[in-house]
Amino acid sequence: MRTRLTASLATIAITSATLLGGGAATASAQTLPSFIPQHLIPAHLAPQVEGIVSQVRAALPPEAWAAVGSSEMAYGDVAAFGVSGGLREGIIREIDAYRVAHGRGALAPNADLDRAAQAWADRLAARDEVMHNTGLIDRGHGENIVAAGTHCGAICLVDLWKNSPGHNENLLDPGYRSAGMGIAYSGNGKVFVVHNFAY
């Protein structure tokens, strides 16, 4: 178990360049979203435009913001949000469907892990960093973390975990019975998702 948990300590950070078909993944995020024609904004007005964009982003649900100027992947996630209730529910649905498709059971909700995951996600977003909660892992729990641009919805976020061997191993561990999740947003346009697992 320790080897599997240690292997999952790899973290994922990705930007729209990778998701939309070009460029290498990076932990940095553009200050202004790619759909704003930055070459038309005079340099001396850029801080004011960034402030306005931040206010609009804060006023909108994250899934609605994700749809603006995004790929079909994000639009699909936003459509699912309208029907089923949000990013959290979408991630849970994706993980449970993935586990069931591989002969594993769906994960029961775990309120204690929800609280721990939310506190950790809030901490990561406030610091704009990705690191694992070693105290939680030392107590025998699994943990997946992802940080991505808000254009990345539920399907996209779970796909990032599926494509990372350590994270995928946690997703498909047949021994896990319950899970908790925390989601937080940084000031520079990233979503941080912490998903904890328990036997």
From TrEMBL:
Keywords assigned by UniProt, alphabetized: Hydrolase, Protease, Signal
Residues spanning the membrane: none
Residues of the signal peptide: 1-29
Gene Ontology process terms (BP): proteolysis
Keyword field contains Metal-binding: no
Domain SCP: 93-195
Highest taxon above the source species: Bacteria
Entry-linked InterPro entries: CAP_dom, CAP_sf
GO molecular-function term, one example from the UniProt record: peptidase activity
Record's keyword annotation contains Transferase: no
SUPFAM superfamilies, A to Z: PR-1-like
Protein name: Serine protease
Lineage: Bacteria, Bacillati, Actinomycetota, Actinomycetes, Mycobacteriales
